[in-house]
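Comment thread on ticket #2218

A.B. wrote:
> Attaching the input chain for the structure job we discussed in standup.
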Amino acid sequence: MTPAAPPLRLPGRPAGRNLPLMTELRLLYVTTKNAEQARALGQELLRRNLIACANILPQMESIYRWKGEIQNDQETVVIFKTQRALVPQATKAIEELHEYETPCVLELPIESGSQGYLNWLLQETQPPSR
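C.D. wrote:
> Ran it. Output below, let me know if you need it in another format.
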């Protein structure tokens, strides 16, 4: 049996001052017009090192009120996995690149998960070494 992966130490935090890893990790729930836009957003956020992963869930039905009218549209959900410190930058990038006038960008905390995966997520969203 392989031992569990030890938690990564968060950058800039002295030993003993680390918050639990899950308090630093986030999901961003975003809706898009279609899978192509979701894919383009994911690729750009990965290129900018703002996320570790994008999960694209096509063909979701949304019913909502927009400018006084009830709308019923097919949309695509994309879930971005990142760390808390990158949420403002990722949100700004999504808002700048998104086709919608008012894109849905919701931050959700990751409360728990497999330690190895959480370590990977944090590692993948570190600034590239120079």
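A.B. wrote:
> Thanks. Noting for the ticket: The longest strand covers residues 69-83.
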